[in-house]
């Protein structure tokens, strides 16, 4: 071998060792985070580990293995899912609704197998999607939806993106059955659901209905990247088929065994020796269900002993050894008085239901969402119908379906719903965009759009002007100034002219001095919001907070953004062609350009500036900076690292996280190379920081 080859070999060997280390660490942290809910490190440190692994694998492609944590999102979008025959059918469960029905179920089981020494395992019934996971030789090889119970769809690529699913089990393969199946329920947490919807709200997009449907939609994405971007969670609830010897004799033992292998099981699961205790447990959850981070619609009760399960067997498609205690319905029937239409800040028309008030899900409901026009037409919901209304947990009440049988004799009075041809607020023209389901009011001066826009501008995720709620926004948009044909607010920029009109404003009914001065102070304060907030505030279609941060991070200033060519916008990470075009068109529109100019003149900040990202993104890292740099002087780089929580060290050691090296890094660079410490350049440092949400105006 030549000396070059030897060096290469050595480098590969060092990389292999580090790659193994990183994978072990990442799997450990996945387990702490997703299965035990006891993270030891922050997201940013986790991302650094993953990043390092990804870089190493990019440099040494031979080291990539299918079970590497970097391969969670792999494979391209597919055109359709392939079918999977379940080796053992995924059964459904019978229901009981109260203690009497539960006792009857128990009595039938006891009679059948002539045993009374039964134990019961009880767990919350997650309102999610049942899935099947197959492990072979300790590795995750196939995941499928439940489908009709006999045949599901192969969604392996999507399930791989769930960090709760270990790609490799936490045990030597020879200690495991050659292959086995586990079953679980995939769900979306309430927090994640709200995060997604908040993002959509800010971007002016249609909101999702409930976590369950959103999780289902996310899981069945043909492109695994989309699944990966939604944080789905999972609880394993059952050991399925096992090739060879079953390692356990009871369901509770199976769950402990699976937990030990790193699979997430529900910590709220409890075992009881009497059916009365089971009933008590179920009744307790009816009250507490809303306190959980995920939706549940009942409790599943299983007889623990596998022998008893076998003896009891299956009737139809339901096992006799398990039953679901379902919570009381969160649906009610009421009369749909009218289908009304509201106008959003982008002009989009949204139909909603005005109902005869009804008590459902613990509250009086008189307004409910109808989702969208397609939903109304598909289900043929008409004003005057009796409809099923659902209100579950904190989710917005929704109209599920009309009760068609109750139309009898009234058919002639109930007409199918049609979108109005003019705006219900301003009377302006209504149009449906090509390739789009939504209808829009085309009048840019529409007071409904403007007041919604003002409300949004002032909202928390945007310019954060407290005291500028719905009422104030509408009042100022709707009130003419004295001796003038103009309203107090005609465009968003007028918000900053309000303080100059103090005396006039005080003549408006219900606007008090104190309230007004507090509002002015908040308006003044909002001028300091960074560019990313401003971009959210001005209602650019498809631009929510994440897109706004990406834009602000990339361009740094509003003028750079306004001058950007379409290609420049498309080159920004995470920004697709539709969003790029929307931004491009927005800043080139003459009215919008005038608005941006006026905001700048009013003193609204037009850059991103130095904003430390959430927490210290470099927390716990020890970094050496060496050499001279082109973008920023070394002292500034060191300051920056410190301000983000990193430790700047003068000497390279094994504990050094990485070295940032410029021109002439010299001896420190050599030392790092010898120790196998990662060396990156200045540009890479900034790229990583931006990857963590840090932003800075270009120097
Ligand atoms: Zn209108």
Topology-level CATH name of the largest domain: D-amino Acid Aminotransferase, Chain A, domain 1
Bound molecules: zinc ion
**Spans of at least 5 consecutive residues with low confidence:** 611-615
Strand content: 15-25%
Average pLDDT rating: 87
Essential attributes:
6 domains; flat; Helix Hairpins; 24 strands; D-amino Acid Aminotransferase, Chain A, domain 1; alpha+beta; OB fold (Dihydrolipoamide Acetyltransferase, E2P); 5-stranded antiparallel sheet; 5-stranded mixed sheet; binds zinc ion
In short:
This protein is α+β, with helices and mostly antiparallel strands. Helices cover 37% and strands 19% of the residues. The chain is flat.
Can you characterise this structure?
The protein is flat, with a radius of gyration of 30 Å. 37% of the residues lie in helices and 19% in strands. It starts with a helix and ends in an 8-residue tail after the last helix. A hairpin with a 6-residue loop joins strand 19 and strand 20. A 5-stranded mixed sheet has the order 2-13-10-3-9. It has a 5-stranded antiparallel sheet with strand order 16-15-14-17-18. A 4-stranded antiparallel sheet has the order 5-4-7-8. Helix 1 runs antiparallel to helix 2, helix 12 crosses helix 13 and helix 16 crosses helix 17. It is α+β, with helices and mostly antiparallel strands. It folds into 6 domains: 70 residues, Orthogonal Bundle (Helix Hairpins), CATH 1.10.287; 233 residues, 2-Layer Sandwich (D-amino Acid Aminotransferase, Chain A, domain 1); 83 residues, Beta Barrel (OB fold (Dihydrolipoamide Acetyltransferase, E2P)), CATH 2.40.50; 80 residues, Orthogonal Bundle (DNA polymerase, domain 1), CATH 1.10.150; 71 residues, 5' to 3' exonuclease, C-terminal subdomain (DNA polymerase, domain 1, Orthogonal Bundle); 70 residues, BRCT domain (Rossmann fold), CATH 3.40.50.10190. Bound molecules: zinc ion. Zinc ion binds next to loops.
């Amino acid at each position: 071998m030549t000396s070059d080859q030897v060096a290469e070999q050595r480098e590969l060997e060092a990389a292999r060792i580090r790659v193994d280390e990183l994978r072990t660490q990442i799997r450990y942290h996945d387990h702490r985070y997703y299965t035990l809910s006891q993270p030891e490190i922050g997201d940013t440190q986790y991302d650094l580990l993953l990043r390092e692994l990804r870089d190493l694998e990019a440099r040494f492609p031979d080291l990539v293995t299918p079970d590497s944590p970097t391969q969670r999102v792999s494979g391209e979008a597919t055109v359709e899912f392939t079918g999977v025959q379940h080796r053992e059918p995924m059964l459904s469960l019978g229901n009981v609704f109260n203690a009497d029905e539960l006792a009857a179920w128990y009595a039938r089981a006891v009679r059948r197998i002539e045993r009374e020494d039964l134990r019961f395992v009880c767990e919350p019934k997650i309102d999610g999607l049942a899935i099947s996971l197959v492990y072979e030789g300790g590795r995750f090889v196939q995941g499928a939806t439940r489908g009709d119970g006999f045949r599901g769809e192969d969604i392996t690529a999507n399930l791989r993106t769930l960090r709760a699913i270990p790609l490799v089990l936490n045990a030597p393969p020879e200690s495991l059955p050659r292959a086995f199946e586990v079953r679980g329920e995939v769900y979306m947490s309430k927090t994640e659901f709200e995060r997604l919807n908040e993002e959509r709200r800010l971007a002016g997009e249609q909101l999702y209905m409930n976590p369950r449907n959103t999780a289902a939609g996310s899981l069945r994405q043909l492109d695994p990247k989309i699944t990966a971007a939604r944080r789905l969670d999972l609880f394993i609830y059952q050991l399925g088929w096992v090739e060879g010897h079953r390692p356990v004799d009871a369901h509770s033992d199976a769950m402990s065994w699976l937990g030990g292998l790193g699979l997430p099981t529900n910590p709220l699961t409890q075992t009881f020796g009497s059916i009365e205790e089971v009933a008590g447990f179920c009744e307790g959850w009816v009250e507490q269900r809303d306190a959980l981070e995920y939706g549940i619609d009942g409790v599943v009760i299983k007889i623990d002993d596998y022998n008893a399960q076998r003896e009891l067997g299956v009737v139809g498609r339901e096992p006799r050894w398990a039953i679901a205690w379902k919570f009381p319905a969160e649906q009610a029937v009421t009369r749909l008085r009218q289908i009304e239409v509201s106008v959003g800040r982008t002009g989009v028309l949204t139909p909603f239901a005005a109902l005869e008030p009804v008590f459902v899900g613990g509250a009086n409901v008189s307004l409910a969402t109808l989702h969208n026009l397609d939903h109304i037409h598909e289900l043929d919901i008409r004003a005057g119908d009796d409809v099923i209304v659902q209100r579950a947990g904190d989710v917005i009440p929704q109209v599920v379906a009309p009760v068609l049988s109750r139309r009898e004799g009234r058919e002639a009075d109930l007409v199918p719903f049609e979108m109005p041809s003019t705006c219900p607020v301003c009377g302006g023209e209504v149009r449906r965009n090509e390739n789009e389901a939504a209808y829009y009011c085309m009048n840019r001066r529409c007071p409904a759009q403007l007041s919604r826009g003002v409300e949004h501008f002032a909202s928390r995720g945007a310019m954060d002007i407290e005291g500028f709620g719905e009422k104030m926004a509408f009042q100022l948009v709707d009130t003419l100034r004295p001796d003038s044909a103009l309203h107090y607010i005609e465009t968003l920029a007028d918000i900053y002219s309000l303080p100059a009109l103090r005396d006039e404003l005080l003549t408006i009914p219900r606007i008090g001095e104190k309230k007004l001065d507090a509002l002015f102070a908040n308006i003044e304060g909002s001028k300091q919001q960074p560019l990313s907030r401003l971009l959210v505030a001005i209602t650019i279609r498809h631009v929510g907070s994440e897109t706004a941060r990406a834009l602000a991070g990339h361009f740094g200033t509003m003028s750079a953004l306004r001058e950007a060519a379409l290609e420049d916008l498309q080159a920004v990470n995470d920004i697709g062609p539709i969003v790029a075009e929307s931004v491009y068109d927005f800043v080139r529109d003459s009215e919008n350009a005038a608005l941006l100019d006026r905001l700048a003149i009013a003193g609204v900040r037009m850059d991103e500036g130095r904003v430390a990202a959430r927490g210290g993104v470099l927390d716990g890292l020890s970094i050496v900076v060496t050499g001279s740099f082109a973008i920023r002087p070394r002292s500034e780089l060191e300051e920056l690292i410190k301000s983000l929580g990193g430790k700047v060290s003068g000497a390279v050691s094994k504990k050094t996280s990485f070295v940032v090296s410029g021109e002439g890094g010299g001896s420190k660079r050599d030392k790092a190379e010898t120790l196998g410490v990662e060396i990156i350049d200045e540009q890479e440092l900034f790229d990583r920081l931006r990857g963590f949400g840090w932003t800075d105006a270009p120097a």
